[in-house]
Amino acid sequence: MKTFGNVLWLIFGGLISAIMNFIMGVVCFITIIFIPVGFQLFKIAKFFLWPMGKKVVNTNCTGFKTFVNVIWLIIMGWVHFIGYGLAGCILCATVIGIPFGLQYFKIAKFAALPLGHDFVKEG
């Protein structure tokens, strides 16, 4: 069932979202301070290609990562959080969209504060 959901996800917007996050990651590499965020956006892009069966876990967040997270949250993180959260709410309004909406909620958590989180396969 996960494979079927992933294929539907990829066809109906996952590929476009992955490309957009990849481009945002490249843009983050233009600045010096957001290079770590750029790497995390690449992880989001990879997640957008095949999201079903993965979860977000907390990892070790050092002082520098916390500082960058706060700057990111003030500048762009809140926009990503609201956008992905609204997309998740809209998708959850329909029965067939609930699994896809749940994936957007995972992404919203990751996109708001990208450093200190990672995607792993659900066990």
* Alpha-carbon Rg, integer: 14 Å
Strands side by side in the biggest sheet:
1-2
- Multimeric state of these chains? single chain
- Strand percentage lies at 5-15%
- One letter per element, helices H and strands E, the order comes to HHEHHE
Q: Name the structural class.
A: mainly alpha
Please tally the β strands and state the result.
Answer: 2
Describe the fold and architecture.
With 123 residues, the chain is mainly α. The chain has one domain. It has helices at residues 2-28, 35-49, 63-92, 98-112, and strands spanning 54-58, 117-121. Strands 1-2 form a two-stranded antiparallel sheet. The model has no long low-confidence stretch (mean pLDDT 87).
Characterize this entry briefly.
With 123 residues, this protein is mainly α. The chain has one domain (2-121). It contains four helices and two strands; from the N terminus they run H-H-E-H-H-E.
Which structural traits does this protein have?
single chain, two-stranded antiparallel sheet, 123 residues, mainly alpha, globular
Q: Helices and strands in order, then pairings?
A:
Elements: H1 2-28, H2 35-49, E1 54-58, H3 63-92, H4 98-112, E2 117-121
